[in-house]
Design a protein that fits this description.
Helix content is 62%, strand content 10%. Strand 10 and strand 11 form a beta hairpin.
Length: 701
């Protein structure tokens, strides 16, 4: 029972606070609640100053409403006591006497100054910052989500991390949206305090003179003190909550608590501290100025500036000494190049070809060198692990080395010794990917993002935050290079699947399905055929992780006399769930379809020779299909889904080989590769326009 009450304590507290508006309170109880209110407001202010980001105190909008309601409830209770008994408790009375000090006019002036500072300066500023933060946070959401998708696709993060980041972005949008409305509560609270103060003063004077028959002097003295005390007791917590509101909505670029940030950033500018101290000393020697305070302040700042400067110099010297530490001498001198290649066995080392290589220009080496903080190697390891989990194929080791023939900012990617991709990045800049409709123009060097061909700009680090506000997706140079490497390796992964790797995959399957491997490989499926089948799947983006299903289905197909192409289609049908998951989005699959007449013509174009079946399509039909494809693919421009063409199983493989020559980023699927739970939406249909034109001409004649 007690545990249930504690779990619902906040809800009960809110109900009790609402009852304060109707139920009279004893002065002692009111005094205790007023002290609790002051302490709670101080605690909230301290929390907002010690958090590093706004989401660390995500309950603040709700807490702001509760504390405001709590404060208004006590205001109503104190007003009731002031107007009925003339004694609202010691806290209010003592605060009133402390501020007035016998002078009611001074007390009212101080009270109204506090109210106006809160209403005009702090509350109005916090309201504006909350409004702008909410709008910019919502505008930046698409760019942040694109950045998460880019990191996920390049293997920098896994699905769970991406889900956590997406939830954080959504929470940020909800938080700043709630704060935009919560600041209106603070503003209304400040306005209500002025109204309650006027009610206390005017109502108290009327009741004191008319009902109780007191003199004007005594009534003014008594009720003015109580009014000022009541107003201050409510305004001090309100002022602290308003300050906390402004504090939490301005924690946008913080790296730690406010105390740590202030100390670190002031200590990073010792020259400014020294200059300020010298200026104060100069002002102190001018006749007519307050000499002693200026000299004391100037000496303190100059001394602090010198102390910080000496600390920074000592730290820099220590870092320089560590960097210049002498390397251990080599025991033996390396042989010359001519002596090394005198041995014929060493010449054979020149014949080896690396599966994947990446060469860098001179200025990009720090991104790779781990001794200088380079993180490329560690992020490649993450990518290889993620790709193995997704596709069931382990990318071979990637050789990284500098290239003397490259420019200082250039890099190139080689597959089996040949360059397949290259790019250029600026290490000291950020790459801003242009959105479809940017909110503003950002200065930068125009370029093209190397992995996806998106128009972009290299921008300075100080423009990064503004670019995100304008809707740009901002990426650091290392991520640009790694994304390009990841997409290139994915595109050529099928070339990296060797006979040795195929045997290794089968040996790995043997640990979980020894009977299947013993029956099928290599008795029914030779390693050469299995290698070609797996390559075909990887080339079209189909994961081979479920190797047991692949081997079992292929064994059945080959046992029935199917050729490699037909066996591949049968395997793809068995992997329908995997293919659907990979290409489907939110239960929907948007596709381009083929007209029945077009499919019939393609089937009639299939020709068999000694090497197998191939597609011998006429040039007119091919030109018609390619032209219509260009029009239909534009419809996928605003979608995050990869373009997909849906055809029958009979022609899928042959049509895919033909269409990918013109559109390599288009995937061709068959109907039996899509599960029944998916909703298919056709964005376009490819028709035989030559036949349609001939029919129209025949009807016209």
């Amino acid at each position: 029972m007690l545990k249930r009450i504690l779990n619902n304590s906040i809800a009960l507290f809110v109900v009790v606070v609402v009852m304060f508006l109707f139920i009279p309170l004893h002065p002692v109880v009111l005094d205790i609640l007023l002290i609790i209110n002051i302490g709670l407001s101080i605690m909230i202010l301290m929390i907002t100053m010690n958090i590093s980001e706004a989401l660390d105190f995500s309950i603040f909008p709700s807490l702001l409403l509760i504390t405001t309601l709590f404060r208004l409830g006590m205001n109503v209770s104190s007003t009731r006591m002031i107007l009925t008994t003339g004694y609202p408790g010691e806290v209010i009375e003592n605060f009133g006497r402390l501020v007035t000090q016998g002078d009611i006019v001074v007390g009212f002036v101080i009270f109204f100054i506090i109210v106006l500072v809160q209403l005009i300066v702090i509350t109005k500023g916090a309201e504006r910052v909350s409004e702008v933060a909410a709008r910019f946070t919502l505008d930046a959401m698409p760019g942040k989500q694109m950045a998460i998708d880019a990191d996920l696709s390049s293997g920098l993060i896994d699905e769970q991390t991406a889900r956590v980041r997406r939830e954080k972005i959504q929470k940020e949008a909800d938080f700043y949206g709630a704060m935009d409305g919560a600041t209106k509560i603070v503003k209304g609270d400040s306005t209500m305090s002025i109204i309650i103060t006027l009610i206390n003063l005017v109502g108290g004077i009327i009741i004191g003179m008319v009902v109780k028959g007191g003199s004007i002097g005594d009534v003014m003295q008594q009720y003015c003190i109580l009014t000022i005390g009541d107003g201050l007791v409510s305004q001090i917590p309100s002022l602290m909550i308003s300050t906390a509101t402004g504090m939490i909505v301005t924690r946008s670029v913080s790296e730690g608590s406010l105390n740590v940030d202030v100390l670190n950033q002031f200590k990073a500018q010792p020259r400014a501290i020294l200059t300020t101290g010298v200026v104060l000393l100069f002002l102190g020697i001018i006749p007519g100025t307050p000499t002693i305070p200026l000299i004391v302040g100037g000496v303190a700042l100059v001394g602090g500036g010198f102390f910080i400067t000496r600390q920074m110099s000592a730290q820099q010297q220590a870092e320089a000494a560590a960097a210049q530490a002498p390397a251990e001498p080599a025991e033996l001198a390396a042989p010359s190049e001519s002596d090394y290649y005198k041995d014929i066995n060493n010449v054979y080392t020149l014949l080896s070809v690396e599966p994947v290589e990446m060469e860098f220009g001179y200025s990009l080496i720090p991104l790779v060198d781990e001794s200088h903080g380079g993180k490329l190697i560690s992020r490649i390891v993450i990518f290889r692990r993620q790709y193995a989990q997704d596709m069931g194929f382990v990318i071979p080791s990637i050789r990284l080395h500098d290239g003397s023939a490259l420019g200082t900012n250039q890099y190139c990617i080689r597959i089996k010794g040949e360059v397949v991709a290259q790019g250029e990045i600026l290490v000291d800049y950020y790459l801003a990917l242009e959105p479809p409709n940017p909110l503003g123009e950002i200065d930068g060097i125009e370029t093209i993002e190397p992995a996806y061909g998106i128009p972009s700009r290299w921008i300075l680090p100080e423009n990064k935050e503004m670019a995100e506000i304008y809707g740009y997706n901002v990426i650091d140079p290392l991520s640009v290079m790694l994304t390009h490497l990841a997409e290139t390796v994915k595109k050529h992964a099928y070339e990296l699947l060797t006979r040795a790797e195929t045997i290794r995959l089968v040996d790995n399957l043997k640990q979980t399905s020894p009977e299947l491997v013993e029956e099928a490989v290599p008795a029914i499926i030779p390693y050469s055929r299995l290698e070609k089948l797996l390559r075909s799947l990887l080339q079209e983006g189909v994961p081979i992780k479920d190797l047991a299903t692949i081997v079992e289905t292929a064994a059945d197909a080959f046992s029935q006399g199917r050729d490699l192409d037909m066996a591949t289609e049968q395997v793809r049908g068995a992997l329908a769930r995997t293919i659907t998951r990979r290409f489907c989005e939110d239960g929907q699959l948007r596709v381009i379809t083929l007209d029945a007449e077009v499919e019939k013509k393609i089937i009639s174009s299939l020709t068999r020779n000694e090497q197998g079946v191939y597609l011998a399509m006429g040039p007119d039909l091919m030109q018609t299909i390619i032209a219509q494809m260009a029009e239909h693919l534009k419809k996928f421009g605003d979608l995050s889904q990869t373009p997909v063409i849906l055809v029958s199983q009979v022609i899928r493989g042959y049509f895919s080989k033909m269409i990918t020559q013109f559109y390599p980023n288009v995937y061709v699927l068959s109907f039996n590769e899509i599960t029944n739970t998916v909703q298919i939406q056709a964005l376009g249909n490819i028709t035989d326009q030559t036949t349609a034109q001939a029919q129209r001409r025949a009807v016209g004649t």
